[in-house]
């Protein structure tokens, strides 16, 4: 298959709603010789912070000289970026070849048993397949949605991590923190150590109970390890880290107060990985270098300095709160303009309620072309009822990037990572 054929073929398996369940994944991977069981996997779930935590952890493990596979979604720049080894995305030709293999399975004699397979299941299986064939030292797998029935949850990891718990995909995962925590905790495995981030008590109680039942040692934020914020500087956040095996002062390469928690969790996962595999813990200077060098597109990413424009993938209320905390801390005396949209399964009104609490802020709603996107009609009606602006996003960007600044203004594009991917591509085209 060439690239166009590949894109057309995989698009047939795309769905607006996930088809939860692991039966198809088990069947599919069994037909490929169970590559997922040949890997040392670190499995990362949670509502927010997964991407940034993984970015820090990947850098830390690479600094140790390891070959690190990362599966993360959604992609922000290229489709191939979802599957990468040491920062190098899977080559197009290799992806096309693997897709051709899977097409034979899905359209051949096993088609009946594999009916209902989704794009996400196929790409997850390909990630496991590719990492196993490339013999990576460790594969970091990011949960797509939930945990218990997520496609990634067929692995037998050496370590699991749950970053945060917040209300997200409520229609699919449950409308309480406890219900969502139960879904996320579905990745906890018998006897496999679990690292947890900063999680609210009611959700943590659910996770603790499941970890206890599974006899999984829990390494918890605030208990087994602590982080403390020292100062915010132009290039990141300075923080202190303390655990039973490490103490130090570090600086993130990512902006935002919540990033010190993500970095702290990544450090804890690193040290737990070393202990699980019998490796020597890397020195603080190596750790410091890895943490400072970490970047992650679409996470409080400054894409233009004059005028000041930031992309941030805050796609649920929990992430919006983190974004607002950073804006209040860093841009108190700035006029703020927010361009916002989201996909259908998100708590749209809750997020707008939060955004509207930010002083000196003008909110503009927009729609983007994607089957998962909230309907344009819904967004326009909401803009009318809340007295907000509505504007085509390309028009908004063109206007703001060419206009003269009357006063200090920061523009934030947020609400959906799928949307940010389109915005980023548009901005990059404009720069070329």
Task: Give a topology summary.
Elements: H1 3-11, H2 23-30, E1 41-45, H3 50-63, E2 68-71, E3 83-85, E4 88-89, H4 92-107, H5 119-133, E5 138-142, E6 159-162, H6 170-173, H7 177-184, E7 194-196, H8 201-213, E8 218-220, E9 225-233, E10 236-243, E11 247-251, H9 258-277, H10 284-293, E12 301-305, E13 308-312, H11 317-330, E14 335-340, H12 348-355, E15 361-365, H13 376-386, E16 389-390, H14 393-402, E17 409-414, H15 417-431
Give your account of this protein's structure.
The protein has 432 residues and is of the alpha/beta class. The chain has two domains: 291 residues, Mur-like, catalytic domain (UDP-N-acetylmuramoyl-L-alanine:D-glutamate ligase); 131 residues, Protein-Tyrosine Phosphatase, Chain A (Alpha-Beta Complex). 41% of the residues lie in helices and 19% in strands. The chain is built from 15 helices and 17 strands. The strands form three sheets. An eight-stranded mixed β-sheet has the order 4-3-2-5-1-6-7-8, sandwiched between helices. The relative contact order is 0.12. The mean pLDDT is 91.
Notable traits:
432 residues; alpha/beta; UDP-N-acetylmuramoyl-L-alanine:D-glutamate ligase; Protein-Tyrosine Phosphatase, Chain A; eight-stranded mixed sheet; six-stranded mixed sheet; 15 helices
């Amino acid at each position: 298959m060439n690239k166009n054929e590949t894109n057309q073929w995989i698009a047939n398996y795309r769905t607006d709603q996930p088809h939860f369940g692991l039966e198809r994944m088990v069947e599919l991977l069994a037909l490929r010789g169970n590559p997922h069981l040949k890997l040392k996997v670190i499995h990362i779930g949670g509502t927010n912070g997964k991407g940034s935590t993984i970015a820090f952890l990947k850098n830390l493990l690479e600094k140790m000289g390891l070959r690190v596979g990362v599966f993360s979604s959604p992609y922000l720049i290229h489709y191939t970026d979802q599957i990468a080894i040491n920062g190098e995305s899977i080559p197009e030709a290799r992806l096309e070849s693997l897709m051709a293999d899977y097409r034979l399975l899905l359209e051949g004699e096993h088609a009946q048993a594999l009916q209902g397979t989704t794009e996400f299941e196929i790409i997850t299986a390909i990630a496991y397949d590719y990492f196993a064939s490339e013999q990576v030292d460790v594969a970091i797998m990011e949960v797509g949605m939930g945990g218990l029935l997520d496609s990634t949850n067929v692995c037998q990891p050496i370590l699991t991590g749950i970053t945060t718990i917040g209300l997200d995909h409520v229609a699919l995962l449950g409308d309480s923190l406890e219900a969502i925590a139960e879904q996320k905790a579905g990745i906890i495995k018998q006897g496999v150590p679990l690292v947890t981030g900063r999680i609210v008590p009611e959700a943590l109680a659910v996770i603790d109970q499941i970890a206890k039942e599974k006899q999984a040692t829990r390494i918890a934020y605030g208990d087994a390890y602590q982080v403390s914020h020292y100062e915010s500087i132009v290039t990141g956040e300075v923080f202190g880290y303390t655990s039973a095996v490490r103490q130090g002062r570090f600086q993130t390469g990512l902006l935002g107060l919540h990033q010190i928690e993500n970095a702290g969790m990544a450090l804890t996962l690193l040290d737990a990985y070393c202990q699980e595999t019998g490796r020597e813990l890397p020195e603080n200077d190596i750790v410091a270098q890895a943490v400072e060098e970490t970047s992650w597109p679409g996470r409080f990413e400054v894409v233009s300095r004059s005028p000041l424009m930031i992309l941030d993938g805050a796609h649920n209320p929990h992430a919006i709160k983190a974004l607002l905390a950073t804006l209040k801390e860093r841009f108190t005396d700035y006029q703020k303009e927010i361009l916002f949209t989201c996909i259908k399964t998100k708590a749209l009104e809750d997020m707008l309620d939060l955004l509207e609490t930010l002083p000196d802020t003008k909110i503009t709603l927009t729609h983007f072309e994607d089957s998962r996107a909230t309907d344009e009609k819904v967004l326009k009606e909401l803009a009318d009822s809340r007295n907000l602006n509505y504007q085509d996003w390309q028009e908004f960007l063109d206007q703001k990037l060419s206009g003269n600044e009357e006063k200090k203004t920061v523009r934030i594009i947020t609400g959906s990572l799928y949307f940010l991917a389109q915005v980023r591509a548009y901005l990059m085209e404009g720069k070329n």
